[in-house]
Write a structure and sequence with these properties.
By secondary structure, the chain is an alpha+beta fold. It is 25% helix and 26% strand. Helix 2 (18-32) packs antiparallel against helix 3 (42-56). The protein binds zinc ion (ZN) (2 copies).
């Protein structure tokens, strides 16, 4: 299984950030774009880059690729995601959007039409408890913002972009080519304005005419109580700046919940493993059991067996949909003592006699048991 090739195609390391991946993708796809690079193999290389980016730009597909290689990355989008932000994956800024931001779109679309900026993803790590009770997190990331100097026009303040003198604003040109079959007429992207339809005579010096500038951006995200790993929160307009006056893209905050050393959780149900000694299990006891809502007293009845599960009602996580709280399940393991002193052994022997267990004959230690004991002590 190869799970590094996609990274190699983009020339980034396996722990590259989304930002680095995006930058590398932009650079590579510009380099190998078939309209710009006529070398043999450039087109295949370009396709390979698209394929790699499509997987690595999506945190779920990327995680799956890291684990299983290309075979795993095909597994659909948002499998574990609840998508409570109304996210359906279809509006996500795939490579086509990024592509067209460079090459000005195909001949079929109006190059001057406002276009929404790219969406971004940000993974936020939550503690087990934060995911249950909800929290507010500051999220800080770099994005392409609308240039503050030229307000996104790309033109030096005091000047304006003008209609492209070559394509007269169409963004495309008609080219006639003589072929053996006769004259062929086709549309190509204007090479002066790269399809924008407008030319900037004096570019803004801050953004060099792109209309965008890199910005470190900070937002607060309210994480609702009861979230789980893989779920996403959509923050409208917190993605990258649009084009031609189009709106900003969105930010998708992807939840990652760190495991707890005490509890496990599935949806609204929390699981806890309780060890009892065999006296507690046989005679019954009252035990303090931890829950995320604080400790509660659990009454263990006489004769409790390993595997018995008690339900602490309402001590689980909140239900994201439908309201209310889940339960905590407490599952018992009865632990057999391993080292007994003489007094304990005598007590157990009289217990056996009282129970009529006259077939209890502890075996004498052989050589291998002694060796094993020595290892156990290490
Ligand atoms: Zn500018
Ligand atoms: Zn033009």
């Amino acid at each position: 299984m190869n799970n590094t090739e996609f990274y190699e195609r983009l020339g980034v390391s396996k722990d590259a950030s989304q930002d680095e991946i995006k930058k590398a993708y932009r650079k590579m796809s510009k380099k190998y774009h078939p309209d710009l690079n006529k070398e043999a193999g450039a087109e295949q290389k370009y396709k390979d880059i698209q394929e790699a980016y499509e997987t690595l730009s999506d945190s779920q597909k990327r995680a799956s690729y890291d684990q299983f290689g290309a075979a795993g990355a095909g597994g659909g989008f948002g499998s574990g995601a609840g998508g409570f932000g109304g996210f359906d994956g279809s509006g996500f800024g795939g490579f086509e959007d990024i592509f067209s931001s460079f090459f000005g779109g195909g001949a079929s679309r109006n190059p001057n039409a406002p276009r929404q900026g790219d969406d971004l993803q940000y993974r936020v790590d939550l503690s087990f408890e934060e995911a249950i009770f909800g929290t507010e997190k500051e999220v800080k990331y770099s994005r392409e913002a609308s240039c503050g100097t030229c307000s996104g026009s790309g033109a030096k303040p005091g000047t304006n972009p003008v209609t492209c003198g070559r394509c007269h604003g169409a963004g495309v040109m008609t080219v006639d080519t003589q072929t053996p079959l006769g004259m062929m007429r086709r549309q190509v992207t204007c090479d002066r304005c790269h399809g924008r339809g407008q030319e900037i005579i004096s570019p803004c010096q801050t953004c060099r005419g792109t209309g965008h500038e890199e910005q470190v951006h900070k937002v607060f995200v309210k994480v609702p109580a009861g979230v789980e790993t893989g779920q996403q929160i959509r923050l409208a307009d917190q993605g990258e700046a649009g084009f031609n006056g189009g709106p900003y893209g969105d930010l998708f905050v992807i939840i990652n919940v760190r495991p707890s050393d005490k509890f496990k959780r599935e949806g609204a149900t929390i699981y806890y493993q309780l060890d009892l000694n065999f006296v507690q299990a046989a005679l019954g006891d009252t035990i303090e059991v931890p829950t995320v809502h604080g400790a509660v007293e659990l009454i263990i009845p006489e004769g409790t067996q390993t595997g018995k599960t008690f339900r602490l009602k309402g001590k689980g996580a909140p239900r994201l949909r439908g309201g209310g709280q889940g339960d905590q399940h407490v599952t018992v393991t009865v632990v057999t003592p391993t080292k007994l002193n003489d007094g304990q052994k005598a007590a157990l022997k009289s217990f056996a006699e009282a129970s009529g267990f006259n077939q209890v004959h502890p075996k004498k230690k052989g050589f291998f048991d002694k060796v094993k004991d020595a290892f156990d002590d290490i």
